[in-house]
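Now for one record.
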Amino acid sequence: MGFGDLKSPAGLQVLNDYLADKSYIEGYVPSQADVAVFEAVSGPPPADLCHALRWYNHIKSYEKEKASLPGVKKALGKYGPADVEDTTESGAADSKDDDDIDLFGSDDEEESEEAKRLREERLAQYESKKAKKPALVAKSSILLDVKPWDDETDMAKLEECVRSIQADGLVWGSSKLVPVGYGIKKLQIQCVVEDDKVGTDMLEERITAFEDYVQSMDVAAFNKI
């Protein structure tokens, strides 16, 4: 396990890919795993490595309390993708057998070249496997409040109009009528959208286009999936 050399662009790229669908190195809260990897990174990752930079800035905010974060700090080679070996300075030497190649610097020039070749091969294998994985689709769960004009509005027809809106990346879910006062009820309806294809502005424009039934639309809740 590992991230390659975290002081190199290739190692930071592995870290960025690893964090594409994770908030932390391990688990769902900051821990000593994050501290160990943070301390191995020489500085903020470049802006194009958005996942690694987001994680770096977040963990940096815990700098004064990092000693109190949960967990036990382990060698760098205990974290990261299973098919990439850590080669950052002073990395997971304790996880290697005496007969293994020294990846942390050697007086033997031939051995150092061999270690470099092996590292590049492993990184290439990791990149190849990553390229074959399907891209993650960013989705959001949205709860909409759709308000009618008055208590005489046909709410069944209003909901029918809303659900008639079809788009690639839009799936309608459950709904209910919620009293708002004076005998008026609003339609509260759930939907799941693909972020790159459907936005709240588009939903509002198309829903309020049913002006005979709809007075307004508001976003009651918005959560990333």
